[in-house]
């Protein structure tokens, strides 16, 4: 029995120093890791404090606000809407908020706001382009190319003073507010006007939308174009241009493109149809244009 107890003492004396050394190594490694984490945390806090200090320092404050793309809008008005004051911290300027506030203005189609370091904010504005004056029995609304109402605080009698806008007279009430978009047949008529080629648009005196949904376009010289519903618009507009290019316009009263594949014209009562002519028109005619022109005075 005494011999066995001696063996146990020898084994214990050899193992215990190794375990103790292992425990010391593990504890030292854990201490180093805690110290490294603490140092990294302190470094991160220090960097954050430096960044915060820089963000609020004059070195990174707004010194200039540049506005680009203005045509009709006033720069002071845009700056007031943007609400960015010189001296404001660059990092705290809410670019999304500024953009949304600008786009909410009826006359602004789109806007972009960027930081240009170190101290400049750039605001780029794309304005809506007024196209038509939509007149119903109560109001006259200035409408942009995309159908957005820009201004509706006008009386119908003011419509004659807007010589640079196409006058669209509608029997359908314009129940929209400034900043909203037209809907229904009136919106489709404005879209039709926006699709007209510059030569044709330059000849338009007025456009009328009846309560039935039928559209008539009055050209210079009193020529009336019967469009019918504002559907298949590109084909109908091409038919109008083809007819005007191919016929002699003397005494021309009506151009009917309600069926664009069989466009027809009629002349003033009592007016003799002019003789056919081979004199070319000023406009080129696409041989692939739709339909035939029913008129004894057609050119060619």
Question: How would you describe what is shown here?
Answer:
The protein is 34% helix and 22% strand. By secondary structure, it is of the alpha/beta class. A hairpin with a 4-residue loop joins β4 and β5. The longest helix is centred in the N-terminal third of the chain and has 54 residues.
CATH topology of the largest domain: Rossmann fold
Q: Can you identify the CATH class of the largest domain?
A: Alpha Beta
Oligomer state equals single chain
What is the count of DSSP helices, taking H or I runs of 4+ residues? 6
Spans where pLDDT lies below 50 across 5 or more residues: 277-289
What fraction, in percent, of the residue positions are helical? 25-40%
Main beta-sheet strand count, sense and barrel state: 9 strands, mixed
Radius of gyration: 38 Å
Q: Quick one: how many beta strands?
A: 12
CA-based shape:
elongated
Q: Would you identify the CATH architecture of the largest domain?
A: 3-Layer(aba) Sandwich
Distance between the termini: 135 Å
Query: How many domains comprise the coordinates?
Result: 3
Which class of secondary structure composition applies to the elements? alpha/beta
Q: Give the topology string: H per helix, E per strand.
A: HEHHEEEEEEHHEEEHEE
Query: Overall mean pLDDT score?
Result: 83
What proportion strand? 15-25%
Task: List the strand order in the largest sheet.
Answer: 6-5-4-7-8-9-10-11-12
